[in-house]
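## retry 2 of 3
previous attempt timed out at serialization; input unchanged, resubmitting
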Amino acid sequence: MPVDDYIQIMIESLTKKSELLDKLIRKNEEQNECVSGKTYEEVDWDSFNLIVEQKQASIDRIVKMDEGFQSLYDRVREQLNDDRDKYADKIREIQRLIIRITDQGAKITTGEERNKKIIEKIFGTRKKEIKRTRNSLKVASSYAQTMSSDFGMDFSEQDIKQ
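## retry succeeded, writing output
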């Protein structure tokens, strides 16, 4: 296969990767809408998890595309370096796409970090609520035991939990 064909395939691969990264950016925004300003109970976790699965499918495709790109590049690297002037326009196109992809990667990372912080806050709040509930149950149980031993009253575990 001629070098020009390999280069064109590499450009198409980078273009498709950029499109997948745009899709990941949109999925990050959808995840953010799922969780932003909501309590644990208000989040639609099924939708959130579906988005995670969709993102993972896109990431898997990107990894395969990167492997294919690297394989193609390894085949033509020497020829590109030897004939830089001949392929200058194509090399600039590849560089432009790589810069775009790098910017998209940074945007994805920022979105992931933002969503992670929101989710950690939601789970932190949920954890505090569970801890308060457990503490309340312990206090009620302790009170029941005190009342039972001091005043001869008999409270069952079922009475305390109600």
